[in-house]
Amino acid sequence: MRKIHKVCVVGAGLMGKQIALNAALHGYLVMLNDSIPEAVGKAETWADEYLKGRVAKGKLTEEAAAQAKKNLFFTIDLEMAARDADLVIEAVFEDMKIKRETFAKLEARCRPDTIFCTNSSVMSPSEISAELRHRERFVGTHFWNPGHLIPLVEVVKSDASSDETAQTVMEVLSSAGKEPVLCKKDVPGFIANRMQHALWREAISIVENGIADAATVDEAVRYSFGLRLPQLGPMENADMVGTDLTYNIHDYILRDLEDSHEPSPLLKQLRDEGKIGFNRFFHEDVLAHLKKRNRRHGVKIGRNRHAEGIAFLRKLPPVGKNRQIELRPDLCGRLGLDVEDADHLRIRALGIETGVVPAECPDTEYADFELFVAFHS
Question: Most CB contacts within 10 A, which of 43, 127, 206, 290?
Answer without folding.
Answer: 43
